Amino acid sequence: MRLLVRDERTVCQKYLALCRWPDGFVCPGCGARRAYELVKVRRWQCTDCRHQLSLTAGTILHNTRTPLTVWFWAAYLMTTDKRGVSALLLQRQLGLRRYETAWMMLHKFRRAMVNLAREPLRGEVEVDDTWVGGTQAGLRGSPQLKGRKAALVLVAVEKRGPATGRARNKVIPDFKSATLLAFLKQNVQSGSIVYTDGLKSFTGLQEAGFKHVPRSQPLRSELRKGAKSVVPLADRAIGNLQQWLTGTHHGVSRDQLPVYLDEFIFRHNRRRLPMAAFQTLLGLGTGRKPTDYEQIRGAAHLSHSDPNILGVAETTG
Fold it and tell me: How far apart are CA 43 and CA 178, in angstroms?
């Protein structure tokens, strides 16, 4: 059994090295491309200048005391199950002593799920908004933006015939035209055809370089009775998002919501190639700077909003 564990650890180290240095090792000290592995201490040593570099240093696994085999299992479960995995379930499946360890591992991965070099959506794109956390009783429209507990999320989805292509989403502060336009410029290629409902804030897309097709959306009561949505693919993505947040996580904290949205998009865009998603996540993780516990728990680098709870939150506190 000890030999098996040692072999698994060695295989994980070699695989992680390939993810970190896909074009071969490069010494940060002298630039040499030759090194040999010090397996027991998870380090690589340059054959020229003898500089030693930890395999996990400067990555999301920086200073981790958790075995690489456990990290690999967490990444596998997180990327291959279309429902994702909650921290409580991960703790049980991996036999972790502390819930906080599982929670932290998942959050470190979530912060490595956005490929900064990703291409924008293109072609035909549907856009719609939703409240995560539900609408507030007695408030309608923009008044909900003041003192709200719910979060406003904008969703964009590529149309590929009747099927759904890639997607993007983001927590936004308001319905203003400038806010919606900034999201589209960042996530949708200029010249694309953008389908929206009749919200007035979407005016100005034509002047911004998009081919805008606004349509009047039926009332919610009519949609519940079977009326067709004018942005069906976006609405389907929104429904899947809401179901995942409440079904897998039973709600999330508002401060942490942006990284949960990143996880949803990461898995959605790679849903047909789950094993490729596993490899991609490890590769992105080795190229992303570490985030310490206090930063993650406080989510200060994500937003400065009040720590309101959207449903029963999955938190460490």
Answer: 49
